[in-house]
UniProtKB/TrEMBL annotation:
Belongs to the ABC-2 integral membrane protein family. Its main location: membrane. Residues 24-258 form the ABC transmembrane type-2 domain. It is a multi-pass membrane protein. The chain crosses the membrane at residues 26-47, 59-81, 102-128, 140-162, 232-252. This is Transport permease protein. Signal peptide: none annotated. It is found in: Cell membrane; Membrane. InterPro entries: ABC2_TM, ABC2_TM_bact-type, ABC_2_transport, Nod_factor_ABC_transporter. It holds the Pfam family ABC2_membrane. Keywords: Antibiotic resistance, Cell membrane, Membrane, Transmembrane, Transmembrane helix, Transport.
Amino acid sequence: MRWALADGWTITRRELIHWVREPGSVLFGLAFTVMIALIFGYLLGGAMTVPGGGNYREFLMPGMFAMNMLFGIGTTMTAIAQDITQGVTDRFRSMPMSPAAVLLGRSFADMIDSVLLLSVLIACGLAMGWQSNGSAGDTALAIALLLMLRFAFIWVGIFAGLMAGNQAMVTAIQTMEFPIGFLSSAFIPPSTMPSWLGAIAEWNPLSSTVAAIRELFANPGIGGDSWVTQNAILMAVIWPLAMIAIFSPLAVRRYRRLSR
């Protein structure tokens, strides 16, 4: 384990050095995230009605936080696919290093990126008038649930990137982030959808995290009588753990079978 962690940190440092030498992609990602929050908050927000009343921006921002954890899948997939197509992954596999180091390093680097992104988005939300009305402990738990969801999505992205293997397939898979993200309670209540579609949206893992952090932030929520909605905090823990348990072994197995 020490060997894996040490080699994994070396791979993480490689990614951090890339960001320092080529900061454009990181800065663009941060700027794009802020722009989307401003568009929803100021351009579309005037037409939105919060279920049960309340400030729309306080309703919006938890959904924005969770959506950006989901959109990180594309970043992870792109980095994995680029290393494969450029032969970097094959070079790593030929070196005397832990087989888990490449995947661990990728996950560590993406978590650092996610913390930075979430910090900028929280600052943007505060500037827009959003605030957490919950206790300090509840606020910390909400942030932890967001990062836990992101860690689960990292392993989904690693596996998808390894399966895709090239940028064209990554782009095709990446388009699925939008229907998955919008088919949730991030921006609108599932009760406004057809009943069968609303049930799918309620059981979307993203919806559980959104509902949980709205509750912990004491922001306006959508309510709902379904079991999954009433137990949002529990499901916001179960869903990420289930995804990690499924996709991390699949990613490791796929990595070992590359080029065979």
